[in-house]
Task: structure prediction
Amino acid sequence: MVRLEHIKEIVNPTPSKIVLLVLDGLGGLAHQKTGLTELESAKTPNLDRLAKESICGMLEPVGLGITPGSAPGHLGLFGYDPLQYTIGRGVLAALGIEMELEDGDVAARGNFCTMNGDGVITDRRAGRIPTEQCAELCRLLDGTSIEGVKISVAPVREHRFAAVFRGKGFSSALGDSDPQRDGLPPKDIEPLVTGIAKSARIANKFIAQTKQALSGREPANMVVLRGFAKYPPEIPSMREAFGLKPAAIAAYPMYRGLARAVGMDNLPAGNTVEDEFFTLAEHYKTYDFFFIHVKQTDSAGEDGDFQRKVKAIEEVDRALPRLTSLKPDVIVVTADHSTPAMFKGHSWHAVPCLLYSKWCRPDAVTAFSESACIGGALGRFNAAELMPLMLANALKLKKYGA
Amino acid sequence: MVRLEHIKEIVNPTPSKIVLLVLDGLGGLAHQKTGLTELESAKTPNLDRLAKESICGMLEPVGLGITPGSAPGHLGLFGYDPLQYTIGRGVLAALGIEMELEDGDVAARGNFCTMNGDGVITDRRAGRIPTEQCAELCRLLDGTSIEGVKISVAPVREHRFAAVFRGKGFSSALGDSDPQRDGLPPKDIEPLVTGIAKSARIANKFIAQTKQALSGREPANMVVLRGFAKYPPEIPSMREAFGLKPAAIAAYPMYRGLARAVGMDNLPAGNTVEDEFFTLAEHYKTYDFFFIHVKQTDSAGEDGDFQRKVKAIEEVDRALPRLTSLKPDVIVVTADHSTPAMFKGHSWHAVPCLLYSKWCRPDAVTAFSESACIGGALGRFNAAELMPLMLANALKLKKYGA
Result:
């Protein structure tokens, strides 16, 4: 497969514009009554017209049978093979709740948990305390400094939180304190490489301080940490890898965080798809790659609400002329994964994809849907192959080899 | 993906015949008036009849979005993954102008350039001197010997030339003298590994001699060298890799050179496609694999001449019975890349491919064209997967595994 090092040889920046419109969880499964998926049930005259002028196919987010989380689902669309490139769990957790991360920060995931008088963890989830209580406890722990390292703590959901360690030389090569099952004491955090004893000491001091601060607050009288990871992740930015000047228009923190992790600027997303397209128009001159994220399709799918997902797709379709009227050189409409309403969750199914450009060589597909895109000229292809194709259609790649 | 080491295990030479007919740059884009590509516009009753009896698909020369140069485009068709196997720039340049290369020769690309009195290069291209002048200067430099190494120099185009160093132990692990931009002095050629100081010294002496020889010949008063590479390239021959006895019928030096680099014998190509097929018939008994190259389709595409490309395709179609009447066990018709007349250059678009054999299991495709082949049983597949399929259909591969 074509890899980043091959692309790097032939990158040829130009002012041409690429718009990648991601309808999160778009792929669906047929409704029992109609035999049609959500996308096939929706009235989408604008998407269908675009599909007719496009080259279409079924995009495989990670690989056959693999249900992607949001991070691998999007990394693939951004041009990074999700089997090769990952973002550390700690960083993902912190980005997901939009904590401010600076270069060199180290982030970890944390749980509030219950420890008994013998120092044994009896419940790694502290009875799944409500998110509000988690937030209150995080305020208690947030902002402490140990040996010059500042530690920020913020709630995720229920018993989960994220912790960010900021200080010169603080290393992410640290083991977990989380023993991963009840009935064991928390582990000391161990340095995984030599020369970082100070980082391990600071992390262990933080846990000791925390234990004191939480004393008497059963069931949440202790914390465990895991998944220490350095920000930024070891992924070349989209500018380095593809010569792009990219921007993201996404409302939800997780996607803004993912975009930022690969070097995109985040623009205001507003509250509706129309707002997102307004932002696109407003900043159109400043960037040459736009990632626009629509969350409603996924949320409706997760809730098992077939009709709401249909309506979310139709809302995108109605707003679409605002996007196409800007006449981007390349338009792609696709998804990071399937979230069939019938399935009520992410699934492994391939997702429909259309790519429009003046040079795309349209195929015979005349509707944007799962069943139509199967017959498209792109066939079934890997998400990470999309970026070279977008770049080529925007004339941003030179010839490979003599 | 199946790799050469897998194939090597199951190679099973037989006298059966494979003919690979490459219409260079065949893939096209639709004409604005008709909505048909060059191939779809051409009257091709013979190719269509063959497609009907064949298994068809869209061949991806390198990868989605990647526009191949001639070398990677052909290496893929010859069975070598062009992302894994490359031919050094110097060797390609020398092969491209049909210089005689012997095993162990080292070739480099060169530029005539302009150097000022301070030893700074003011124009790396010597004002793009005409090719005739380049040829005259090359004659001046050609044939010198330094410390037992004979150096041949031949013109490529404008300011470009190729230099071949022939002598026992001469190494290709040499840096460039070309500083890659104006305003800098040429670099000394450095050995890139230990133990080859003599090779670097000889290369630097050659440049010093050349400087003297060109004294006063402004703007071409100096040379720079780059891309030193050993012949033959580090690619197993088609005999080693596939057990084939292969021959090439190609008129243009670049393709004859590429064929030679993978161990094919070059046969006389004459002036027309018919001549090529005559040569095929004449040497049919001597070889079991024939690569036939048709350049006219690519040249017309590069010139943006839609109608001339259509006519070039029709000429191949008219001559085709001469090929099919030999009843090769396997016939493949495809291309090394697309050169759409509308695009006036190589492009990234997949190319149509048909494979005929008694055992091919024909699909529903009844015409040889881009839009028809999309629906073929091969789908979209990588160029380097074609060779195992040709070998299999010629019954030249044994079972893999017990």
Notes: The CA atoms of residues 111 and 160 of chain A lie 5 Å apart.
